[in-house]
């Protein structure tokens, strides 16, 4: 299955410096130095200038489930437009399938507990989030800084912990080869213990976003 809003292992590995995490459970890729120090600093500045409490799709009764802040990034900013273009070239996905780019900001003690990025089929909010653009397909995430302590992303099912590094991108397919949601993508943005953590999130959809 490789629809228009989807990347593929072949596409990802056609780029120099992209590494595949060896797992039969999940397609996960890592690209160090995807963004340079200047781009990361500019994006952090944008996030700092404008952020709101992060939200979750299906409220599960835990007010501490996602405690970070979110910044909606506009491609009117040159560095954001540059990033959107670079992500589209890497993923091979037309930007019309992309959700608006976001920055996520974590202070000491903040986290996003174990979750998947796809919307749970059959959940109360499924139609609200998926009726127009469909399900999320791939996630691309970039760490904008090396966190002083804590803040790693833990994929519990495949037992992989990824440490934030300035400019490092990770990407994964949220679905199995047959197109069903892949529960092995479960991941936890662990608590920051010292300093701040900034990441960029880019989610792609099955159908055009707008
Ligand atoms: O910050 C991280 O390490 C992960 C963020 C994340 O999983 C998300 O925003 O969906
Ligand atoms: Fe996530």
TrEMBL record:
Record-annotated Fe2OG dioxygenase domain positions: 97-206
PROSITE patterns for the chain: FE2OG_OXY (PS51471)
Top-rank taxon: Bacteria
Keywords on record: Dioxygenase, Iron, Metal-binding, Oxidoreductase, Vitamin C
Entry-linked InterPro entries: Oxoglu/Fe-dep_dioxygenase_dom, P4HA-like, Pro_4_hyd_alph, Pro_4_hyd_alph_FE2OG_OXY
A Pfam short name: 2OG-FeII_Oxy_3
GO molecular function: dioxygenase activity; iron ion binding; L-ascorbic acid binding; oxidoreductase activity, acting on paired donors, with incorporation or reduction of molecular oxygen
Gene3D superfamilies on file: q2cbj1_9rhob like domain (2.60.120.620)
Cofactor: L-ascorbate
Name of protein: Oxygenase
